[in-house]
Every structure is written in C-alpha cells, then in structure tokens.
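Lay summary. Proteins are chains of building blocks that fold into shapes, and those shapes determine what they do. In this project we predict the shape from the chain. Here is one chain we studied, written as its sequence of building blocks.
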Amino acid sequence: MRDLTPRLRRPQVQLGGKINSGQTHRPRKVLSWLATAWPRMMAMRPVPLRPALWLLCVGFCATGGKAQSTSSSIGEQVRAIAMAHHGDIALFAENLKTHETVAISPDTPVQTASVIKLAILYEALEQVRSGKTHFDDKITLTKADQVQGSGVLLFFDAPLSLTLKDVLTMMIVMSDNSATNLVIDHLGLENVNARIAKLGLKDTYLYKKIFTPVPAEVVMPADQKKFGLGKTTAREMAMLMTKIARCELAEPGGQTQADDAKLCQVALKMLHVQFYRSAIPRYLEGMPGATSDSIANKTGSLDAVRNDVAAISTKNGMVVISVFAFNNKDRSWGAEQEGELTIAKLARAIIQSWSPEGLAAWPGSSGKDTPAGK
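And here is the predicted shape, written in a compact code that computers can read:
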C-alpha cells in the first residue's frame, strides 16, 4: 500500500444489526500434469488501471453483545492486515448463520479477472435447469479456439470433441481460458449479462471473450478499457457465491425443482477441486476439521491483481469470503506473491474469529471425505 500518512484518516468502523442478505469428473490425469506444465502457461495481461483512491471502510453486522465484541476484534485485525498490504483491498465476508459481516470497500468496482467465470457457471446451471442446454451437449474445440493464458486445452490436439460439462469443469477447476470461451459461445455472452442483471448485480459485467478480438460491429462499454474482461464488487461476487452455495436457482417467488440439488452439486464439486489454493484456502486447509470439500472457491489473477471468492463450511455455519487485491506493488507470479498472502491472512483471521473450532465437511456430504491436502 502506498504510504498515505499523515493524510490517511483512520478507517471508520460501523456496527449495526443483521443484514438482509451431481457429480462431476476430475480432468483425467490433468491435475498432476498441470504442475509441470504451469511454467509454460502465460498469465493473462492486465488492462492498465488508473491509480485508485484508497477508500477503506470496515463495516460489521452483529447479533448481540458477544457477537459485537467479536466483530470489533476481527475488524481491527482485518484493518491491520489490509493496511500492511502494498496495494488496495476490497473485501466482503458474511457468516450466513449469524449474519455477522466484515467489509472493506465492498462496493468499489474492481477487475474480476477469472472470478467472472462464477457468473458464467451460474448461467450454465440456469440454462441446464430450464432445458435450454444439457451437460452432455457436444462442443468441438478447434485450433482457432485455443487461446493463451491459464488452462491446458491450449496444448491439446484439435479438433477435439468435448461436452459442456467437460468445458465447464476445465473453466472452473483450472480456469482454462479456451474452455471459458467455448462456454461463452455455447451459452451466449448476452445471456450471461442478462442473468447478472436479473440477479440485481448492478456493478458486475462480462465484457468479452478472453484474448479474442471484439467483432467490429460490437461497441464496448466506455469502462471496458479500465476493467478488461469483467468488473464486479466484493459484495456482489459474494452474493453470487452465496446463491451457488445455498443452491438458490429459482426465480424470486418461484418454486424449486426436483433436480436443483443435483445441479448445484455438479457446480460445487468443480469449485471444491479448484486447482489454485494459494489464497483463501492457503491456511484454512490446515485448520481442525478441514476436509477435501470444506471450501468451494474461484480465483482470478492478473499481474497487479489477485482475487478469490469462496464459500467455507465451518463448525459455526457457512462463511462466504470475497476478496480483491488490486494495484498490487508485487506483480510476481511466485508462491509467496503478496496479494495472495494478504488474501490468505484475511481469510484466516475471519475464520479464526467466527469459527475458532475450525472447518467442517460440506453440509450433506457423506462424511467420508479425506482430510484437506491428503
């Protein structure tokens, strides 16, 4: 973070009441292969972002005297971690059981990087639910579809026949950019944005496919150059993850369907085995009670950006954490990248405060899950 002293005012702390708040396969032999292939993968290049004014506002919602004391404590911890970071932080976290929240600039629009793929996944669930698409729809990867950046489809021989479920899995588990573009083509970019708007996410938008020229007849929104692939806020991406974690697919006032739980299980399985574990899961997977399905998360990275959005099953209920570290001074891609470490520290502080007993297996799981990291 830039040294703003003595001009930087102490961040305002607010206390309040409650807020209103299937199985899928693992890519065959691909996770172990990726560990050796990673050095060949070029990271997405960020769109230049004008220096952002540091707006730090930590807000909490507590349910009583004891909870208020806990929130005050975590507020101080979160503020200290954010202030130590060499860059900017946007965060929104909520315990879905107690409705305690902690936030730092939760409504500041930020670059999504690959976190926008959560919105694409949600639209896929809705289209499968309505019968418009099916997980076994055939999709062909061609040479023209292979784009740089994260993922492994770039290295496969083309043409290659895949299913919608295949490319969704690759998009989430390894953040595969080629797979993401195939999904966007299959679902329709305009449908993804229509769904985002229907959900009431006013500052979330998917602008374009990844590393693909925009058709000449398409006029980009004026702020696309600032945000690149997509934009969102920490609060809005937390809302989207909450809907996936709670399996809220029905329209407001609508009825759930018999297969809703199976649909959500497909998405959650992908998020549980998401490959990149160095941000929110970094320290949490070593906590008491952690299993292989305790955390469902999706990351996004650019040179000066590190993002992670997660739903975490804890002994004290489900916790959703959405963190965006941007304007980062550390633009490296190593294991000790500061943005990822800062996100990890924030997640650890929040979970240790709200669930000192540790994590738990995902609700409804068989209870036979292996310990995280095993």
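What the prediction tells us: The radius of gyration is 20 Å.
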